[in-house]
Amino acid sequence: MIDGAMTDGAREEIARRFAFASEVITAAGALALEHYQNFTTLEVRNKGVQDLVSEADVAVERLIRDRLAEAFPGDDFLGEESGYSPTPGAVGVWVVDPIDGTQPFLTGTPTWCVSIAFVRGSQVEFGLVFNPALDELFTGGVGFPATRNGRPIAPSTAKTLAEGMTYIGASPRVGPEQVVPVLDRLLRANGMFVRVGSGALGLCDVACGRLIGYVEAHINSWDCLGAVGVLQASGCRVNDFLAGDALLRGNRIIAGPPAVYDQLAALLD
Question: What is the DSSP string of 119-136?
Answer without folding.
Answer: EETTEEEEEEEEETTTTE
